Amino acid sequence: MICKYYLMIGSDTVDTADNSCIDVSRMIANISDIKTTYTRVDLGGVVRKCGSTMEFVEEARERFISLYNKDKLKSLASFAVYGISNNWTYNKLFECPHDFSTFKYDSYRARIGCIDNSAAALIKANKGTIYEYPVSEMREDIPLNYDGVRIRNEVSFQIIGETVEDKEYMEKFIPKDAWWWIPYVNYTVTNEVNNRSFVTVDQEETFLKSGTDCGWGFPANSCTSSFFLECIEDNYVTIDFSNFYIESKKFGHVLCKITTSGNIQLLTCGYSNLLGLDANTNTSAVKWSGKLLAGEKLQYAIFNHQRMSVQDGRTVRIHNNTGITSWNDLGDPVNIDVISPLKLLSRLLESISANSERIYCSIKPTIRTYISNAFTEKDNWRLNGSRLVAAESIRNFEKAKIYSSFSKFCEWMETVFGYVYTIEMKSRPNTDLPYADILNNSHDFEGFTTYKANITSITDNFTLHFSTTAGYFLAIVYASITLDRSPNFPGYERYQVYDNANKSYKVHEDRYYHDTVDDMYYHAVYDDGSKKTSLLECQLYDIGLSDYEGVQTFGGTIISVETDSGSFTGPVDESNILYVRRSKQFMYSDNDKYYSSFTGSSNYNIADRARTDMVFFTNEQYYVIVGTSLMKCTLKENVNEGEKVPYVVFKHRDEVFGSTNLKTIHSISEPEYSVDSSRIYSEIEIGYEKQDYDLGNNGNDEFNFSTTYTTGVTLNNSKLSLISPYRADCYGFEELIGKRGEETSSSDSDKQVFAVKCINNGGKYIVDRTIMVEGAYTNSVFNAPLAPVYMIEANKRYLASFTSLLKFASTEGNAGIKLDGRAVNTDISLDDPLFGPGNIKFSTDSFIFPEDWNNTIVQIEWNGMIFKGNLMSLDVKPQETEALKYELIEIV
Hints:
By secondary structure, the protein is mainly β. Helices cover 10% and strands 41% of the residues. Among the domains are: 3-117, Thrombin, subunit H, CATH 2.40.10; 151-329, no CATH class; 436-537, no CATH class; 541-641, no CATH class. A hairpin with a 2-residue loop joins strand 51 and strand 52.
């Protein structure tokens, strides 16, 4: 193809209009080596790579040598290639700065390499680096109020006697004068016990031969020094000693409680039952559940009824049967710092591009889906509600840090949500947004009133209103009989000052006021004539449209609705889309009902809040969201979009295998079709790495481990692993909570990152338990939305490219779990594959460059057949006749 090559001395970018820029098309000795490449990374987005060592002669050589002799390693120079288009104009194909660390020259040539300082190159070089950041610099304004997982603790007990050789039982001699036998009860623990509520001990053996009469002709149990369980924090406990077996019909078995005052209470029977040795005194009856208070103890005791009639001692047989003690532990709620995925991504890219141009980023909050012959945006509720938690934050380290690499973040986004990244060039974002001053310099009040003051001051129990009659703020005590009202209240100076000249209060005009009831912002305007202040609705001016994703039209605003009617499934008229101020979102109005979900609602709302990245328009007026408030604004006129900067954009993988833009190439040569064996898998593993716990139930309920499926493919033995490097196991989270306060240094486990699906609940996050979990021991488990079955759902079309059926093989988690009725151990059918098994290669001289390779399908005709595919790779060698060599991923 016809190209021009330019060299710019003294700059790392090329400007062909600058006097320092020269055409070097005839001064490159190795022009055939110059190329650039577009490549799809890990079946994700398409990125560009350029870089060659160039050999310059003649004037270009002299300029390089002169520049280097003057500036040495501080020298700047850049190179660009421009290709001719169909309308005979030249467009920039690529440019890159030169790397003077590679500079060399001889008597004929100057050789120098190119620096590929593109975002793709920087990410590739640094993606595996683990960075650490203080959580305090990244945490969200509101914490996670974590209420815990109930941990089941279980301890086994046995009655111990003397062993008998070659026998499975033991023996014990009971003295003739013993009324009560407190046997030696030994506890055994198969799993680590969380001793938050109870301490288990070996009950020491004691015989009681006398004591105070119980009222039924024999001594009461008076032993308070021997017990098997002590309560250290109020809690409920379950005792089941019904399997104990001692060969004697003259014993009465009873569970006793030793109170904090030293009294003994019989729990499973009474003294009258012991006198008659009825069924309540059998070992089968030693079962009890109840609440113990701190300081109370439990004891297993045996009444020797034989003492009432026989004076001789006797030996009894004790069988090695086991009794069980169990309880649930639930800790007190604690606040934990959380980090948004976007914040962590931004910091990672900031570190990666520390010595280069900043790389900006965004995470698409919606997923584009094709419904009813049209594309619509669907809220990604799993992603939008997920927050990241550093293990050190869970353990409450004073200076907690979070540790991650860009690769780990990408793996988490891909495996859990089906998201991959693209690198796009967008307008530089406006970091000096005009509403920042409003949010940072506003004071809250609770609506308007027409009342005037009736007392001089108020100190507490008031709500704050603006009086439109008086023209200043009033504190009102609604609980008072006289409805006390005063402009003099604690902190009134932040709102107004007393004007001695006019004997009244004057509201500050240099700040803003937020009506928290209707979620609107106001500024104050003082009228010298009436000597009163009015509050006027805030408006923003000269908003740059390039700072937003687009413009959405709506019908108007209303204050509130009584009921959200859910989903509206009919056709949508934009004039019926209304912004509801108290709900802080757009709703659809139809027949006096209001719906938060409607076709296209994701263009207006995300996670039950109006989108902050959109401009809204109604009745010749533009609006944007400030905080959570809909505010009037004006747009800049005739604005140049300005400088383009690299953006890393995470979006669903379905969207980077585009279908909205079709490019047909008619002139091709050397076509070739081949099956890509790297995309053939016999087994797919998805989920999280298995963890071992020190908790009482050993995490047997945990479902967020890995699950393995077979694909039915027998051509090879290859496994696709989609394992998240960030954890989502609730029992692991709970285990770290239990280590709060331990004086240990940070370990590898403390450098892990947890993901938690949250809900914003009135100024704090709580864990999301909206998905019903069946088959778990407790309903306090969480993170069901992040489970492997939902990970498969997020990657469904991608996985359908490898098989039409995932046949369940095994899981490292609880196989008996059901999530909203979906069993985790069942087969999963897949359809609508994202791509096919083959690749198509060809060369062409047709220079077709779409603006976005991720949204483009390339189509060719070969031997009467139509082949379509998304770009896998493209080599551009502009000096060759057939300058472009394509490889496409087949679309079926």
